[in-house]
């Protein structure tokens, strides 16, 4: 699941760096390129230089602003429609936001995946590059396959993003309610960091198998060779070749990235909102009783899945 709060921070750069490792591990079926996270990191730098760690970074940069606007608007409006701040409503509002933002998320991740896969293991100077950049990647796909090609993996993206966002908001709501995060609490920041980090881990654990299939479907067809005809075909062939462990490929790297990125995001946003809205906002991480006081959880967006 790939979500951010601010246009492009250092945490976002680290996030995309990790995604490059995860994508390569998820889609390499017959002959895995990397034995693990460290070996992947080492191999990419040796074969493609440091720039290889940031392949496909242009696509997230283009889509983040629109994704943020959609998620904030949909999640906030859904909570207002539901009127009551409960854990279930937090899940439903997050799920609604996750589903609608797939319109941008799916093509963005398709371009990111294709950009990350091209030239894998080759020197940066290699001329065997199909796409110049993310826009060129989407334009070429559209010319060959139309809107259907640009939206390849949309169903799996929906299946991943909808419950992923829901679990993310639900987990953060439950953790902040149980821990308590009052401004006077000397341990408020560690609590926020823990709640945000664990929410990110919970979200990824709930949807990671779908993310593996989504990545394989979006990477399928590179070079004109298609292996999978559908989601079920991809799932069946993946299990036949690699067993059930296929659904954990790249999980270690994802979880290592998920905790610090989400912890930093939630803590930063919560503290910022408490600072800029000391009178209008809630006094802790739980819901405020009045209709004009939106809970802080509603102001925060998951960091990706």
TrEMBL record:
<keyword id="KW-0812">Transmembrane</keyword>
<keyword id="KW-0813">Transport</keyword>
<dbReference type="GO" id="GO:1990575">
    <property type="term" value="P:mitochondrial L-ornithine transmembrane transport"/>
</dbReference>
<feature type="region of interest" description="Disordered">
    <location>
        <begin position="284"/>
        <end position="305"/>
    </location>
</feature>
<keyword id="KW-0999">Mitochondrion inner membrane</keyword>
<feature type="repeat" description="Solcar">
    <location>
        <begin position="190"/>
        <end position="275"/>
    </location>
</feature>
<feature type="transmembrane region" description="Helical">
    <location>
        <begin position="255"/>
        <end position="276"/>
    </location>
</feature>
<keyword id="KW-0472">Membrane</keyword>
<dbReference type="InterPro" id="IPR050567">
    <property type="entry name" value="Mitochondrial_Carrier"/>
</dbReference>
<dbReference type="InterPro" id="IPR002067">
    <property type="entry name" value="MCP"/>
</dbReference>
<comment type="similarity">
    <text>Belongs to the mitochondrial carrier (TC 2.A.29) family.</text>
</comment>
<dbReference type="Pfam" id="PF00153">
    <property type="entry name" value="Mito_carr"/>
</dbReference>
<dbReference type="GO" id="GO:0005289">
    <property type="term" value="F:high-affinity L-arginine transmembrane transporter activity"/>
</dbReference>
<feature type="transmembrane region" description="Helical">
    <location>
        <begin position="52"/>
        <end position="71"/>
    </location>
</feature>
<keyword id="KW-0029">Amino-acid transport</keyword>
<dbReference type="InterPro" id="IPR018108">
    <property type="entry name" value="MCP_transmembrane"/>
</dbReference>
<dbReference type="InterPro" id="IPR023395">
    <property type="entry name" value="MCP_dom_sf"/>
</dbReference>
<keyword id="KW-0677">Repeat</keyword>
<keyword id="KW-0496">Mitochondrion</keyword>
<keyword id="KW-1133">Transmembrane helix</keyword>
<feature type="repeat" description="Solcar">
    <location>
        <begin position="1"/>
        <end position="81"/>
    </location>
</feature>
<feature type="compositionally biased region" description="Polar residues">
    <location>
        <begin position="296"/>
        <end position="305"/>
    </location>
</feature>
<feature type="transmembrane region" description="Helical">
    <location>
        <begin position="91"/>
        <end position="111"/>
    </location>
</feature>
<feature type="repeat" description="Solcar">
    <location>
        <begin position="85"/>
        <end position="178"/>
    </location>
</feature>
<dbReference type="GO" id="GO:0005743">
    <property type="term" value="C:mitochondrial inner membrane"/>
</dbReference>
<protein>
    <recommendedName>
        <fullName>Mitochondrial basic amino acids transporter</fullName>
    </recommendedName>
</protein>
């Amino acid at each position: 699941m790939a979500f951010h709060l601010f246009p492009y921070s250092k945490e976002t750069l680290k996030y995309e760096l990790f995604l490059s490792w995860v994508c390569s591990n998820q889609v390499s079926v017959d002959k895995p390129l990397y034995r693990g996270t460290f070996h992947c990191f080492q191999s990419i730098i040796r074969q493609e230089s440091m720039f290889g760690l940031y392949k496909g970074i242009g696509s997230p940069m283009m889509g983040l602003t629109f994704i943020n606007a959609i998620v904030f608007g949909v999640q906030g409006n859904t909570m207002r429609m539901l009127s009551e701040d409960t854990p279930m409503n937090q899940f439903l509002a997050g799920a609604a936001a996750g589903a609608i933002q797939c319109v941008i998320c799916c093509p963005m991740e398709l371009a990111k995946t294709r950009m990350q896969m091209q030239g894998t293991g080759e020197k940066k100077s290699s001329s065997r590059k199909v796409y110049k950049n993310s826009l060129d990647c989407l334009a070429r796909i559209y010319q060959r396959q139309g809107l259907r090609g640009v939206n390849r993996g949309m169903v799996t993206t929906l299946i991943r993003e909808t419950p992923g966002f829901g679990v993310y908001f639900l987990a953060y709501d439950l953790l902040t309610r149980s821990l308590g995060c009052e401004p006077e609490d000397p341990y408020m920041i560690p609590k926020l960091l823990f709640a945000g980090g664990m929410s990110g881990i919970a979200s990824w654990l709930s949807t990671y198998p779908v993310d593996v299939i989504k990545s394989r479907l979006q990477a399928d067809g590179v070079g004109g060779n298609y292996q999978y005809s559908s989601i079920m075909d991809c799932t069946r062939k993946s299990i036949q070749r690699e067993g059930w462990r296929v659904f954990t490929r790249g999980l270690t790297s994802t979880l290592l990235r998920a905790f610090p990125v989400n912890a930093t995001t939630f803590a930063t946003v919560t503290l910022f909102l408490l600072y800029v809205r000391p009178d209008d906002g809630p006094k802790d991480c739980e819901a405020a009783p009045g209709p004009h006081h939106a809970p802080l959880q509603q102001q925060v967006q998951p960091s990706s899945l």
